[in-house]
Write a structure and sequence with these properties.
Helix content is 16%, strand content 22%. By secondary structure, it is of the alpha+beta class. The chain is globular, with a radius of gyration of 13 Å.
Length: 96
């Protein structure tokens, strides 16, 4: 099983907004939302036309985000290209 070497970047964060921060400022829409687990930035997913969550990673190098869509308990490590299981948010693990 592949391991994530960036789990120390997972912090107890809360989203700063109830939507994609940049899309809200632009007056634009999004498909799904992702939460940066290092700073609490809320960005739109890669299925959204603006892909702000991935742009946030490229700008900040904060490696881990998680979905904040209802019923979804997964995350992603951009650095390790690895899906994470966030059923226990305090101890995310690589998804099987």
């Amino acid at each position: 099983m592949q391991r994530c070497s960036h789990l120390d970047h997972v912090h107890r964060v809360h989203g700063k907004t109830h939507g994609c921060e940049e899309c809200l400022k632009m007056g634009d829409s999004w498909v799904h939302l992702r939460l940066c687990m290092e700073c609490g930035h809320v960005g739109c997913c890669d299925d959204s036309k603006n892909t702000h969550a991935t742009k946030h990673f490229h700008h900040t190098k904060h490696p881990i985000m998680r979905s904040i869509e209802p019923g979804e308990e997964w995350g992603w490590c951009y650095e390790d290209d690895l899906m994470l299981d966030f059923r226990d948010p305090a101890h995310p693990q690589p998804a099987e």
